[in-house]
Structures are given as C-alpha cells and as structure tokens.
Amino acid sequence: MAQSYTDVRNYFGSVNKVAYEGKDSKNPLAFKYYNPEEVVGGKTMKEQLRFSIAYWHTFTADGTDPFGAATMQRPWNRYTGMDLAKARVEASFELYEKLGAPFFAFHDRDIAPEGSTLRETNQNLDVIVGMIKDYMKTSNVKLLWNTANMFTNPRFVHGAATSCNADVFAYAAAQVKKGLETAKELGSGNYVFWGGREGYETLLNTDLKLELDNLARFMHMAVDYAKEIGYTGQFLIEPKPKEPTTHQYDTDAATTIAFLKQYGLENHFKLNLEANHATLAGHTFEHELRTARVNGLLGSVDANQGDPLLGWDTDEFPTDLYSTTLAMYEILQNGGLGSGGLNFDAKVRRASFEPEDLVYAHVAGMDAFAKGLKVAHKLIEDRVFEDVIQNRYRSYTEGIGLDIVEGRANFRTLEQYAMNNDSIKNESGRQERLKAILNQYILEV
C-alpha cells in the first residue's frame, strides 16, 4: 500500500557529495577527471561542460522493457500520484546537489501526472512547478531546458503537430503553450521540440506535405507565443531517425536544417543533438555535431551512447573516450554551447537497479566528458588536425583552386586548365597515422 507523502530529503543517504579526488583515486564515488574549478581553455570545467541531469531517465524510469517488468528499486516509489511527483522533486534536488550538477531537464509529464482533463493536468503541473521553483530559490541548480511529452498518451497515436486529427493538433498546441509558460516561470535557458511521434509508418495513408506544413505552422505559432509572453530562451529541435515511427521528419541534423530553412525557421531554432540518435541515423556523433556547427546551428547536446550491436535507442551513459573527445573537439570549435549544455539523456542498465547506481553512472559520464574536454583542448591548442586539414586543401589557396573558391572559374576555364594538365598527383590522407596520434593524446593528456 502506497504511503502518504512526507518531506524526506534523504533518498541517497549513503552517498556523500561527490568530490574530485584525481585519477589515482580508487573511490568509485569520486571524480577522477572532472574538477569543476579547473580551468581549461579559459573557462572552468563547470562552465565548459554545463552538465545537466535528465529527469525522465533518472527519476521516472523503472527498468521496464518490452520483455520484462520494472526492476528499479527507488525509495520514492512507495508513493503514488501527486505524492510520488513531490517525492521525485525532493530526490532530484538531493542528487543535483550531491553531484554538483548545475542543470537539469524534464518533460512536462515527467514531473507531474496527467489528470482526467487538460485543466486538471495543468493544475497538477502548477503544483509541482511551484515546488521546483521554491527549491531553485535555495539551490544553484538551473533548468537547462524543458519540453512536452507528446508521444506517450494514446491521443498521439498519429503524431502531435503532424497528426491527421486537428483536435490533437489543438491539444498539442495547448500543451506547448503551457510548456513555454513553465519555461519562462522557471527561467529555462532553452525549450526543446522533440517529435517523438512526428513521422509516419507508411505513405499509403500519409499526406506528407500537409504534415510538414502543419509542423512548420506549429513551430511558427510557438515562436510567436514566446515573443508574446517575453520568453527569450533558445528554441531547440532534437533530431531522431526512427523509433517509434518508421520515418521521423527530423531524421538527422542535415534533414532538420533543411526543414528549418525551407520554412524560414533557421533564425529561431538550433539543434539539440544526441549521440545515440546519430548512430541510429548511420552517422557518428561528431558528424552530426559538425554538420550543425558549420551551419551555425549547434545548440545543445544529449550526452549518451548506443550499443553498436543493438538497433534501437539504448541511451547508455557515455563512457567511450573517443566519442567524448571528438564531441568536445566540435563543441570547443563551436565556441561552446551558449545557453545549451551536456544533458545526460541516459539511463542505468536494467540490472543496475539500486539508487547508488545512478550516482556511479553520472560520475562515469561526467569523468568521460571531462577527459574528452582536456584532450580536445590540447588537440586544438597543438593544431593537430587543423594543420593537417589546412595542408590537405592547400591547392584551393592558389592557382586554379583559388579561382574556383573566389568564383572566377567556369567550365570553359576549368576544361582549358585540365587539357593542359596531364599530371594529376594525389597525396595520402594518412588516416591511420592520425588515429594513432589521437590515441596518443587520449593516453597522455
């Protein structure tokens, strides 16, 4: 039988505040590489990395999978309904403080349960948002971003902003309207649009153009309402290639950028990129980051990794040092993430079911990105790849290459040049040598 809610504030009682002890420490509840006050590249690690804890995987996930029931043993699960929602707030701020995480993120339905009507649902949300706001007054933790869960409830079976049912479109608009009001009230630095079911299963029953047009109309309405209420946070779209729908409209960074430019939204949105989504799209994480970066649209990151042997979104905590290093390389080249951050959209494995495992997992992820930050900064400082790339493309800095870049060349002049140039000599890309250098930096820094 569920208990009545009481103010516990000790859900991770056996865990003290996690401290930096250095790489030689054997303490599993201490940081080995993440030293919040250490300066790297002119900023502290805390400023560079901007870590955020994902509310959904950390405080609402229960270990259920398609083949098994819940396994997670959480102290707050002795409550139900609004009592459970309040207990999760208490637990969340306890963990933020113990990890020293400066940010958190949530879906609206993570923090408060749905009621029987939208009005009741919003009332539930108001209670919990008020509680979170009170905690934020006495905490250094801020809201990195919030978003709307428009994928769990059966009403979204055909999508939300892309639904064939106009009533669902209207409900989704009302939900995002409330989300933007919440973002303003809590001082959220960003608002994320994650189209969990914005896609289709088959073209046999899909009006593709109408759905894309409606999605754009929805985004423009959100831009207009944010201006109306004075919310100035950055809007973000999070690409995802598949799951649950067969074809998501925001498949990857390039597809999402094309959508934004097609509908005149590129000045209002940036991308929130997730490592596991990148690999599901058939890309590396660094590819997605660079695609967004070179288009001036890299906004924030969901920090996780997938299992290369599994074809779905496993959302593992990031521990791959190659991935974290190359991700931080792109982020540093971007000049940082602005109002964005590194949000741990990651969950402990189903067999890691004790509360302490949540701390181990976040420590591992924070250390992995701290190491990646230091290695990436050193690589940039030593111009390891910049000089290689500059030299590789040097033919475009003089002669016919410079004519091409500066727009003086055409097919006639290029044909004339090619006719008189019978000796084309390529040079090795030296990929293996560069990977060996990357290994060396990871091992030595």
As laid out across the biggest beta sheet, the strand order is 5-6-7-8-10-12-13-14
As a percent range, the share of strand residues is 5-15%
Q: Helical segment tally?
A: 16
Helix and strand string, N-terminal first?
EEEEHEHHEHHEHEEHEEHEHHEHEHHHHH
Structural class: alpha/beta
Unreliable residue runs: none
Using the alpha-carbon principal axes, give the shape. Answer: globular
Distance separating the two termini: 53 Å
Q: Taking Cα atoms only, what radius of gyration do you get, to the nearest Å?
A: 24 Å
Task: Give a short account of the largest sheet.
Answer: 8 strands, parallel, barrel
Tell me, rounded to a whole number, the average pLDDT. Answer: 96
Helix proportion: 40-55%
Total beta strand runs: 14
